Amino acid sequence: LGEGSKYLAVCKGAPNFIIDYCTEILTPSGSAVPLTDAMKAHVVDVVDEYSSQALRVLAVAVRDMPELPYDASDEDVTTDQKFQACRVGLRFSVAIAQNV
């Protein structure tokens, strides 16, 4: 976790879906940089290449949070609303390709 963070949101799923919620990308050196449209296009191209080889691709993105982005004591907040609040400003971390 980053300094001052108490929570970590971890989202996994189809890369084309997950990347749309990302504002940063993790570099090979481990630092996070802003995610540009060109970087998004490159990720999608790589995913498409893996998919064309009959590989299943899964993306993982994370977000450090100093506090929850919703009122945890509010019983009327649905699971979907909590998920929506947590998946804002994610950091694209990895795409995993697996032979199916």
Concise description?
The chain is of the alpha+beta class and 100 residues long.
State the assembly state of the protein chains.
Answer: single chain
Query: How many DSSP-defined strands?
Result: 5
Count of DSSP H/I helices: 3
Estimated radius of gyration: 15 Å
Structural class: alpha+beta
Q: Gap between N and C termini, in Å?
A: 33 Å
Folded structure, characterized:
- The protein is of the alpha+beta class and about 100 residues long.
- Helices cover about 30% and strands about 35% of the residues.
- It has helices at about 15-20, 35-50, 80-85, and strands at about 5-15, 20-25, 30-35, 55-65, 90-100.
- It has a five-stranded mixed sheet.
- A hairpin with a 5-residue loop joins strand 2 (about 20-25) and strand 3 (about 30-35).
- It is globular and about 45 Å long.
